[in-house]
Specification:
single chain, alpha/beta, Metallo-beta-lactamase, Chain A, Rossmann fold, 2 domains, six-stranded mixed sheet, 25 strands, binds MU-OXO-diiron
């Protein structure tokens, strides 16, 4: 790939990775990704905004060299320091030790751990600080914590109406044109944009709204994100900002939503789930109480149901001294940032020892979930009495939910 001109003196010099299918271990990237980096030339100084993944440094350097001599780079501005962007800083500095790295106070701290040596020049900037590159190109910094790292900031270039927005408004989507106006497969891009929002910004919704508030009065012509195409005014920019606003605004469930998730090898934990559901319905007749067999449903959708719920229950047998793997897989989808104090309960039928209950309780308690008294447990086959007890347990949980 070669560089792409954004506006006069502004170039996209990042790297394409069209074949990437998994990002950061957990995120599927059906459309690949790009590690975006931008080079801005003023009349006096030159800055790079965001660096690139270290594995593709060779290509990255080639792109930079197309528009500037590496020895002419004065600043590398790190809008945040996740290694897909900060990974190559060390190599840039080794080629040009005069480069000054610009970061927020938290970013400066992370950089020391990323570079692991003392020599780089790091300048710490705060909200409202700026750097003048000359010729009207003034880069102003806007603090944007938790979008999505604690050290995140945006960089605003007023002269050209360019917001370098870090991962905010980005997408794991790869087309060499690098511009929304030239995007070939817009439906696939939109799919990637939603997936990226859910995975990266879904846990930080209040911060997304704060970030949008901070940029609402800027006359943005281009949002140069750190992944995927550059967004342009009149194309995807306004639409995507509206989507972020919509997706981040909390909608209260009309009816209390209390999903019950379970795995069941011989149908006993399933019977408990149904009986507990009936018990909850007795206390909360208008609530939305649904039971879900975890292995028969899409894990992503179940994760969404769990995260959007008002309370939830988890049922598992015990296998190999633990809850079964699909149950852990579902819990891996928990939005750990926003789950605090949500009410939950644990139940299941086990063979003899029942370690699943203790382990699930430990996991949920560590996430600061408000776990209901003792788990409801039976041994092996659910008797009539067990099911009546499960019904009563459901009623108690319903009352606990209302308390
Ligand atoms: Fe693309 Fe948060 O790194």
């Amino acid at each position: 790939m070669s560089h792409v001109k954004v506006a006069d003196g502004i170039y996209s010099v990042g790297v394409l990775n069209p074949s990437l299918r998994v990002f950061d271990i957990v995120m599927s990237t059906a459309y690949g990704t790009t590690y975006n980096s931008y080079l801005v030339k003023g009349s006096e100084k030159t800055a790079i905004i965001e660096a690139s993944h270290i594995d593709y440094f060779e290509y990255y350097l080639e792109n930079i060299k197309e528009v500037a001599d590496i020895m002419d780079i004065d600043y590398v501005i790190m809008n945040h320091n996740e290694p897909d962007h900060s990974g190559s800083i060390g190599k840039l500095i080794s080629l040009n030790p005069n480069i000054e790295v610009i970061a927020t106070p938290a970013g400066a701290m992370y950089l020391k751990n990323i570079l692991n040596h003392d020599s780089p020049k790091i300048r710490v900037v705060k909200e409202g600080d700026s750097i003048d590159l000359g010729g009207g190109k003034v880069l102003k910094f806007i603090s944007a914590p938790f979008l999505h790292w604690p050290d995140t900031m945006f960089t605003w270039l007023e002269q050209d109406g360019v917001l370098f927005s870090c991962d905010f408004l980005g997408a794991h989507y790869c087309e060499p044109q690098m511009k929304d106006t030239l995007c070939d497969k817009i439906d696939k891009y939109e799919d990637a944009f939603l997936g990226y929002y859910n995975a990266i910004f879904g846990p930080f919704k209040p911060y997304v709204l704060d970030g949008l508030e901070k940029i609402k009065d800027l006359d943005i012509k281009y949002a140069c994100t750190s992944h995927g195409p550059i967004l342009s005014k009149g194309c995807k920019l306004e639409e995507n900002i509206e989507k972020y606003k919509l997706w981040s605004t909390k909608i209260k469930n009309e009816k209390a939503s209390i999903p019950i998730f379970y795995c069941s090898a011989y149908g006993n934990t399933q019977k408990l789930a149904k009986a507990i559901a009936e018990g909850i319905k007795k206390v909360l007749p208008s609530a939305d109480i649904e039971t879900f067999d975890i292995i028969e449903n899409d894990m992503g959708l179940l994760g969404e149901k769990l995260n959007n719920s008002d309370a939830f229950l988890i049922g598992s047998p015990t296998l190999n001294k633990d809850a079964v793997p699909p149950v852990w897989q579902l819990l891996a989808h928990i939005d750990a940032i926003n789950i605090h104090k949500k009410k939950a309960a644990i139940f299941g039928s086990c063979g003899w020892s029942g370690e699943s209950f203790k382990n699930l309780n430990g996991r949920l308690s560590n996430l600061k979930v408000d776990v209901f008294e003792s788990p409801f447990k039976i041994t092996l086959v659910a008797s009539e009495k067990d099911l009546l007890d499960a019904f009563e347990y459901g009623k108690s949980f319903g009352e606990y939910f209302l308390a």
